[in-house]
Specification:
Blueprint: E1 2-3, E2 9-13, E3 19-24, E4 30-34, E5 40-46, E6 49-54, E7 60-65, E8 71-75, E9 81-83, E10 85-86, E11 92-94
Antiparallel strand pairs: 1-2, 2-3, 3-4, 4-5, 5-6, 6-7, 7-8, 8-9, 10-11
């Protein structure tokens, strides 16, 4: 494991010595991960919440949140959407 001067993880090495590099933004959220084969995944945020994940083949998964940060819907790379219904205790009651 390697860390930057702020104590954020910047890389991890597995038992076979394969290294994964980890990029982060100013608030410390992971914005990218690049494996030993140079395959990079990217992570997007809105207001501190994870809203998109782009895999090494540029396929995008999106998350749609309400103002309270609750997951309302997610879209897979093929554009299929799943909606989520939270109850008053913020538990998902229906996909």
């Amino acid at each position: 494991m390697a860390y930057d001067t702020l104590g954020r993880l910047t890389s991890a090495t597995d038992p076979l010595t394969h290294q994964t590099a980890i990029g982060a933004n100013a608030p410390g959220q992971v914005t990218s991960m690049t494996d030993a084969l140079q395959h990079t995944s990217q992570f997007g945020y809105t207001g501190g919440d994870l809203t998109s994940v782009t895999d090494p083949l540029n396929a995008v998964q999106r998350r749609f949140l309400d103002r309270a940060g609750r997951l309302l819907a997610a879209t897979d790379p093929l554009g299929r959407q799943t909606r989520f219904v939270p109850d008053k205790l913020n538990r998902v009651t229906a996909p």
